[in-house]
Each structure stands twice: as C-alpha cells, then as structure tokens.
Amino acid sequence: MNVRRQHISGTAIAAVTALGLGTLSACSGASAAGNTDKFDVVASFYPMAYLAEQIGGDHVHVTSLTEPGQEPHDLEISAKQTAQLQESDAVLYLKNLQPSVDDAVAQSEVKTKIDAASLTTLEKHGNEVGGHAAEHDDHANEELAGLDPHIWLDPVRYAQVAQGVGKAFEKADPDHAADYKKNTAALVKKLDGLNTRFANGLKNTKTKVFITTHAAFGYLAERYGLTEEAINGLDPESEPSANRVKDLEKMAKADGVTTVFYETLVSDKTAKTIASDANLKTDVLDPIEGITSKSRGDDYFQVQESNLKALQSALGAK
C-alpha cells in the first residue's frame, strides 16, 4: 500500500534498490516489508507482530524484524532491514527493548510510528518483583535495572496496548477503520478472558513465590499477587553473583518454592545448576518473545495457557 511512496525521492528509491528489498521472516511467513497492496506494517518482534496481525486482519501485511528463535534483546538491524523499514506504512515497536530498532525508527521517515510502551504504564523492576519483594527494600536500589519492557506478559497491559494500536491503525488507514475497531474489540475481549483465567487459576496456591532465570514476569506477578525472584535481571544473558545464588537457595527453602523456571530462547544451564543444588524441579515459563518448534503452543494465547498451567503446578494451586 505504502501511502508514503510518492514522498520518497528518486535518490532514496535508488538507494533502497541498491540495498535490495530482500525478505524478512514474518509472523505469517517471509516476504518483502513494503510496497504491497495492503497496509504494510513492520513489527519489532513477535508480540508486536501478533497484535498487528490480529488487529489488521486481511488488510495488513506484517513483517517482523526479529526472526523466530532469535533473542530479541540481541537484535542488530541490518542495512537491508533499515531500507525495508523506510518502505513500510507503519512501524510497531517497543521502545527500550531493542536499541537498534529504536535508532532505526528514530532515523526513518515512516509516517506512522507506534511505540507500544507509550500505550500503557511501565514500572521499574529489579530481580525481585511482587509482594514478597517489599520485604527486601534494602536490596531494591542495587537491583533496579530501569523500566521493565515486558508488558505483553500481563494480559491487562497487553489489552491496553492493543487498543492503542487499533486506534493508530484506524487513523493511518481510515478506509478500513471499522474492521480495525471490530478486530481490536475481539482481541481485547479474548485478553480479558485470559486475565480472568489467570486470576482465578492463581488465586489459591500453597506458595506465591516463583524463581525464573530472566526477570520477564514482573508485571504478571504483580497482576496476580505473586512474587517473581529472578536469577538474572532484565538482561537474560547476565550471570548471577554467588551471593544471589545463595540467597535464592535460602529463599526457596523458606518460601516453599518447588521449581526453577527457564525459557526456550536462552540457555537453561544456570537454572538447572541452581535447581540441582537446591533439590528443586525445573520447568519452562515462556516470555513469548518468539514462537518456535520448542514453544508450548502456536501463538500468544496458547503459550500463555501453558504458562498458567506451569505456574499452577509449581505454586501448588488448589
């Protein structure tokens, strides 16, 4: 569709052509990012691409800058992807999660730039998040690592983002505004249902504390009255200190923790070492940063349902 095409200079078009409009791995398959007869949306990674597809339906062509199985935090934008970004009608991204995407978006001339982080509220989260963390205020300052970007794991915040994306699509592509509005409402209703299932499913549990490798579940923990204790901070690749490991093992015994959760896109070595030392089980809690053959489900909702079951089992849901 590319509503901006007529504003791009001949020099810019030549430069784009020279770079080559190759393919990107999209949520729905690989294809060029722009110049289709649909509303072309470039999404930064899976949770954004999923929103764009669900809200846009048949009217949008969605590509993702992050390939399935690729760790989103590590993404470096290529020249080819930068060129494809320029040819799109809209970009949907989450500021502060992927610095190279932030830079590319800031420098691009895309008319519709949708920052998911601006559509809901973000909080500062450290290694401990939730009610239990309030007991450890002496550690709070050293553990805070900035604003937590993992808003999509909280169905309520994700629904708020969906509503904002829907309005942005309506404004940018008014010919299909009615469909965008209808699709957004349907998605928000599904997310409301997911929120209810999480709330009911985690209401009565033996413990409220769970351990993860990566501090991705802070918003989810706060939403449902749980406490996430993360081995690492917001950076999934960071290594925990020896003191942190000792604290976790001591806490696990005191709070009746049974399981150390790891994720599919990052090594499970640290989780398994801690679990073995503390005589705990391991299981997957998926931050849904991408869908692969290892994912416990084919889309956001299926994986969230798997996450709910895993939490219920680990926390001793009654």
Major sheet strand order:
7-9-8-10-11
Can you tell me the overall shape? Answer: globular
Through-space gap between termini? 52 Å
Compute the CA-based radius of gyration: 21 Å
Uncertain runs are 2-31, 132-145
Describe the largest sheet: 5 strands, mixed
Number of strands: 11
The SSE order reads HEEEHEHEHEEHHHEHEHEHEH
Question: Would you kindly provide a written description of the structure presented here, covering whatever features stand out?
Answer:
Helix content is 42%, strand content 14%. The chain is globular and about 60 Å long. Residues 2-31 and 132-145 have low confidence and may be disordered. The chain has helices at residues 10-19, 46-56, 79-86, 99-107, 137-143, 155-172, 177-201, 218-223, 242-255, 269-277, 300-315; strands spanning 24-26, 29-31, 39-43, 60-64, 90-93, 112-115, 128-130, 209-212, 227-230, 259-262, 281-284. It has a 5-stranded mixed β-sheet with strand order 7-9-8-10-11, sandwiched between helices. It has a 4-stranded parallel β-sheet with strand order 4-3-5-6, with helices on both faces. Strands 1-2 form a two-stranded antiparallel sheet. Helix 2 packs across helix 6, helix 6 packs antiparallel against helix 7 (177-201) and helix 7 packs parallel to helix 11 (300-315). Helix 2 links the parallel strand 3 (39-43) and strand 4 (60-64). It is α/β, with parallel strands linked by helices and 318 residues long. The chain starts with 9 loop residues before the first helix and ends with a helix.
